[in-house]
Predict the 3D structure of the following.
Amino acid sequence: MTEPKPTVAGVPRTQGTSAGGAAPPDLAELLRSSAKGDQQAFAQLYDAVSARAYGLVLRVVRDPAQSEEVLQEAMLDVWRQSARFDADRGSPMSWLLTIVHRKAVDRVRSAEASTRRDTTYHRQNQPVEHDSTAEAAHASMEARRVRDALKSLTSVQREALELAYFGGYTHTEVASMLGLPVGTAKTRIRDGIIRLRDTMGVGQ
């Protein structure tokens, strides 16, 4: 199906009721229509969620211009994946914001990787004191330990933990984004922390 081209000029239009105080649209129905290639339905979906989605991206990326770009990319992903939405597994807003958040995190990780490459290049091309080299090596080893430890978590634990500690979200926000009861989200985060601690040997 032809991909729509949503645009954002500054901060997207505010989510909520349409002109005249009409009830907010049925997001699940708009997703189902979008899955059938209905670009008008997707435009309505975009208008309904863009403000909240933009706020989420901005909170992660922390740059307005890049946030607009990420929002565009994320909403195109929503368009492509709209047929995968399953109302039995969560609300349409939670499903959509999960896609948006992952796209924002990908942008941050990409930027961090680029910064690391630049830093590595400069370090390799400049004389470095012995102590600085040892410190950098230690930091690299610690980062590798954390990455390896994260791989030991289950996918649900890792997703909840990344949202809470790398995304900076509260337990309530994590629960909303994953379509879970707050207690379940807290349990996944707690179990993930315990498993990370055990894997890394913290406190032993």
Observations:
- The chain has a mean pLDDT of 77.
